[in-house]
Amino acid sequence: xxxxxxxxxxxxxxxxxxxxxxxxxxxxxxxxxxxxxxxxxxxxxxxxxxxxxxxxxxxxxxxxxxxxxxxxxxxxxxxxxxxxxxxxxxxxxxxxxxxxxxxxxxxxxxxxxxxxxxxxxxxxxxxxxxxxxxxxxxxxxxxxxxxxxxxxxxxxxxxxxxxxxxxxxxxxxxxxxxxxxxxxxxxxxxxxxxxxxxxxxxxxxxxxxxxxxxxxxxxxxxxxxxxxxxxxxxxxxxxxxxxxxxxxxxxxxxxxxxxxxxxxxxxxxxxxxxxxxxxxxxxxxxxxxxxxxxxxxxxxxxxxxxxxxxxxxxxxxxxxxxxxxxxxxxxxxxxxxxxxxxx
Length: 343
Ligand code: ADP
Ligand code: ZN
Fold this sequence. Notes:
Number of helices: 15
Mean pLDDT: 96
Bound molecules: adenosine-5'-diphosphate, zinc ion
Structural class: alpha/beta
Shape: globular
Low-confidence stretches: none
Largest sheet: 7 strands, mixed
Strand content: 15-25%
């Protein structure tokens, strides 16, 4: 099913329930170069056979300016012209770096994505944000907002995805349910990770629903002046925890959502039952609901957040499932709640 979404910076074609070979319909007469990582290349060799491909090391460390420079050198060696189409085949790391390289190579060339993780399909590949980290710690600090021409969804590629990456991706899926979709929240609470791993049509629908929520928000606020900020639900504490304790992004987001829900109980009267439901859902998708952390350490990192305004920070909270708001919170208040809910 093809769906064209019109963003302020241009249209993007979404091919849901498609296959990798759609690439050849879309780019039939074009010069195509794939960018992927070593794991995906080794697990799916047939799709890259005899195709120009840049293979990166798997993992977040590839999101660096040094790797960007090395990709550009490879593109030059392959004699890629301004009419090349760069296609990122991979998870969020690959789509972020492909979008960035395509935005700057010869001042910008066409690009598309074939996301291969749940996280990239439901979230990271969508919305046009791309970029790299600086010095490993300043995440996504150098980048652009630039939409791909197309995103192709091929669930076959998920057959090789490690279980850890499935739960990692579901953290973002659960995020979309909390923010916008009480019905999806109910659906998630009635099933678990095993169900979606073995029920392709349910998974397809779920991913498409997340993608549509994200498209709607980004189409209205591409540059994050307003509602796009809501997509940071669970991410304020998550970024701090992820950096400090080197856990998976999805795990950190799961814990961040528990903290945000508990804060929402205190500040906005979200019911304790809702927080409990959220924790149960997280467990069903093999995600943690707490972590042994040093609250002071976490607070020190939070205080360096770019969203800080004096002794407050803008936090994404829930009035209810499907009703998210941006709320300034005092650091003291946050510290108390983190201490309580991580015990
Ligand atoms: P994400 O931000 O989407 O979680 P990554 O790009 O870091 O992103 O991917 C997570 C890990 O999963 C990487 O080690 C990557 O090589 C691996 N991976 C991605 N897609 C697949 C797949 N379909 N099968 C097997 N491994 C995959
Ligand atoms: Zn995230």
